[in-house]
Records
---
Amino acid sequence: MGHVDHFQYGALTPVIAYLMSCLGSALGLLCTTRARAVRGWVRARWLVLGAASIGGTGIWVMHFIGMLGFSVRGTPIRYDVSKTIASLVLAVIVVGVGMAIAGRRNAGWTGLVLGGVVTGGGVASMHYMGMAALSLDGRIHYDTLRVTLSILIAVVAATAALWAALHVSGFAATGGAALIMGVAVSGMHYTGMSAMSVRTEGAHGLAHGVEATQFLAPLITGISLFTVITLFMVALSPSADEIREEAELSARLARLEDNRGTSFASGNAEGGRVSHRRRGENDPRDYFRSGR
């Protein structure tokens, strides 16, 4: 049995992974807060950014950084590029689908739970797809009970994340929710990792693929660009409160215009009746009709 070490760099990788999960969650909540206040394609744009932030940075990047600290004694570890990228795409898609389900009008708790199950199941699938991308000189085995527990944690974490995405607003609440989401995502990851064991005896396969460190340069570049662009868009856009205030002001102005138009029309009609009466009073024909 190969010795599995999830923390070959000590606390460095889990701490960085947790911070990245918090960052992605916070970015996603900032985006979904704005999505709740708008409609149409603008809403869709914010939801896509929110799904990419939570699913990409908050979940997948956390998973990948956590894997940097993973090692098995006696065998190198490589990663299949296509499966690794597919796991990233899956994470973003399932978060987006969960938001769409839970965010429907009148979805209620049923929609929230359904969205949480879909997203949580997808996140767990992402995790184990990422594990399937591993290539090493050995055979990987999983403990069924711990795998089941990791899936349950993923569903609960996803449900909580969707609830936060649909309800949380304000700087303090967003930050607190992001910290909690980071704990949930990290808990799911390391629970799933604890379910695995590696048997190296009798294994003669050769690890193929790329090393995890070869992902670092594109990963850091991509995360940095995405984070800066998303923060830039959030900073330049009005907040949810400002959007609501503007909508309320526009509605009040529209009502004032309607009332003014109604008053003007009523005044014209009344003026017409008065003018007609006055013309009738001065009409000479009325004198002869009255027999005077």
---
Amino acid sequence: LESDIEKLESIGVDILFHPSKQEMYPVGYQTCVEVQNITKPLCGKNRPDLFKGVTTVVLKLFNIVRPHNAFFGEKDWQQLAVIETLVKDLSLDVAIIRIPLVREPNGLAMSSRNRCLSDQEKQTALSLSHSLQEAQDFIKQGITSAKIIKNGIRKNLSERKDIEIDYISICDPESFIEKKQIRGRTLIALAAKIGPSRLIDNCIIEEF
């Protein structure tokens, strides 16, 4: 928290709202809000209650703070889509602003979880972005089979014994339905555990 506060102060933030868990979820709390369908694949497949917690706390924060704008990063593409659906379906008066995925100079997707990685683990984590870049190169060469692209990513990541793959997905970026052929706008997303951290990364293939 202290490092976050320092960063906020450095850009001139005036107020930080940081409620305690007890304030947000007092004794007797029993209400949850859930978005259906798009929460089930990818990050939700092995963690079925993940997005129920996300949508519930985000809705509570929106109700308390009443923001005009809320900013969410495209690194967690699925979470962003879930929140956009929440806002749309419940007619919430807040604009969701998409923040593009930001990478380190070496290509590693920026994440607060990176600070938990050793130098060696950070090098290992580069395999995620390298695999995505290689997938994009294959597609530019005319390879559009999702199975072939997935197998290539899996092979690259499996060569590193210190990477535990959670999922590799090639899907529609709105419905998250898996694709057999890469046609039209496509999301390539992956998640893996490296050391103590579960990392995610993605790229968008625009229509070609």
---
Amino acid sequence: MRLTTLLASAASAIVLAGGAFATTIGIAMPTQSSSRWISDGHSMVDQFQAAGFDTDLQYAEDDIPNQLAQIENMITRGVDVLVIAAIDGTTLSNALENAHAAGIPVIAYDRLIRDSGNVDYYATFDNFQVGVLQANSLVQGLHERFGDGPYNVELFGGSPDDNNAYFFYNG
């Protein structure tokens, strides 16, 4: 919740720095198949609307072409700020170029958007620390269930196109 409050403040600052008050913030989320993204999306809508903004929240259902089309549609309709939780942080360069050309600031939410100089802000967590907390919880749970090790654990590193996966793994 703190991150969405910070995000709402950042969007407000972006708009006010430009000398005008934005009316619509486009929010592009990856999927509704995870309660996390549903919760984040609704929290953003609540925070932005409480700050006086209209919102356009869309979920792409983990379909990259769908997310690209949603973002392009938001740009065409003239949203004032884009908040994007990218499905694949390497596929949005052209869309972000169009947003930049239209004067629409872009906030990358949680997932870094790479290969583009047109991301104005990046709002995320301390993903290395998230990995540390996950590992500590795993070790504690193993110890509680099985006593002192050794333990055999198979680690999954996450998707290669998810920049956060590297930080989680290294944590």
---
Amino acid sequence: MDALSDDQRYGITLIAFVGSVFSPYYAWARRRGSSDPMAHCALNVALYGGLRRWAMTERGSGACQRDRDCFQIGPSLVRCSDQGLHWQINELANPLPRPLIGEVSVAMGKGWRPDVFSLSADGAHRWGPLNPRARIQVHFDRPRLSWQGWAYVDANEGDEPIEQGFSDWDWSRAHLPDHSTAVLYDVRSTRSKVQAPTVLALRFADGQAPQAFAPGKRQSLGKSLWGIERHSFHDDKQTARLHKNLEDTPFYNRSVIRSSVLGHEVLAMHETLDARRFARPWVQSLLPWRMPRVA
């Protein structure tokens, strides 16, 4: 889930992981023949704006519980109800160990979309846009922060490590003036001899089936500070350009871009993942420092 405040000053990303795809501990366990995903859960919290914080502490199975309506991850909890999603957050930021304590509510109601799309030819990696546009309320006691805005909620799942299925991808989502949402997935597989990407360009509106649209022209957004190549699409009205950088790591970049989608000038959330870089030993050796584990 990600969101921007109504005044565009603040943003948030919340990701609840079962069998964290970015966990070095999960990778080590798989190599030893033990691969219980519930033994490797984490809540990723990222705050953007004036009060920037980032946390992703992995928890063992003894500290995690999951059922139809709740997901307990250590001291944090994700709960779904007829009103939507509610997050109770109690984490410790990294690298500076500062408390992250707050609540986030996403007013999804019962409007959970059932759509599931394959991101790979063999169907081993899947994505579902649970609710592409919903109101969000963010309130943190530590740090002191409150705002409202529009959120995007989705889910991903896979049957194999992410670096086995993909070399890299670019993803973006934009809320359009008619209250619909445009999502672009530009995925390159490790199994393709010719790096022909899989491109999904879909528009989601309440009460309607997903509508495919022409993504437009693919263009470079330049390299990140860590040298990751970033790309996006634009139609004939305006080229895409970087508006604000939110996260920059050796294998992952998240930013806000300005672009033109379906004839509308928009601010879009954008991410680039370089799975080849992620798999390199020097990157793997850095992960435990950024993602500590509490068994």
